[in-house]
Amino acid sequence: MTAKDLHFYEPKNGHGLKHDPFNAIVAPRPIGWISSRDKGGNVNLAPYSFFNAFCYVPPIIGFSSTNWKDSVANIQDTGEFVWNLATMDLARHMNATAAHVARDVDEFRLAGLTQVAGKLVNVPRVAESPVSFECKVSQIVQLQGADGKKAEAWLTLGEVVAVHIDKAFIKDGVYQTGLAHPIVRAGRRGDYFEIKPENMFEMIRPD
């Protein structure tokens, strides 16, 4: 591969394509389907496309929100949130919770989902989701560029303090990722795909 075979650009100067390839390249990305509660008791449920796991001990997950949104504000105020696994069966429900609605609108009801109270946090999980993580916030960090300039984005990190897993997806003591048919973000806005068991394969580490 030579220089003439490559499309090169510096992001600060634009990408020169029909669509910014950044999201499509960093794919797939798990969906951060986050439930939270504000100080007044209002519940929020929203999906975030920048989400992942970051640490084993303690188990830490995190999501990044462009602009200061209700989820981040709620989590800063209460210190708690829940992550819910988005699956193929729940794709339309998850998408419905992406709607921009007033702070006091219940996205669970809007999307036809059921709230189940948390065991260790005062935030409900999605009953229909096969996996949920109850979390206590560990850090909320405003992101910044290499030049130190603050970005309009906040990374919320939380320690997983309780885990709920549908037993149907545990075989011989091992959680079967593909059986849940999780959906993940792909490239352009609105692009998703489903992880299926037949598309998974195993590679043994050389060490």
UniProtKB/TrEMBL annotation:
Chloroplast listed as a keyword: no
EC primary class: oxidoreductase
Membrane-crossing segments per the record: none
Keywords, ordered alphabetically: Oxidoreductase
SMART domains: Flavin_Reduct (SM00903)
Single GO molecular function: FMN binding
Name assigned to this protein: Flavin reductase family protein
Organism: Bradyrhizobium brasilense
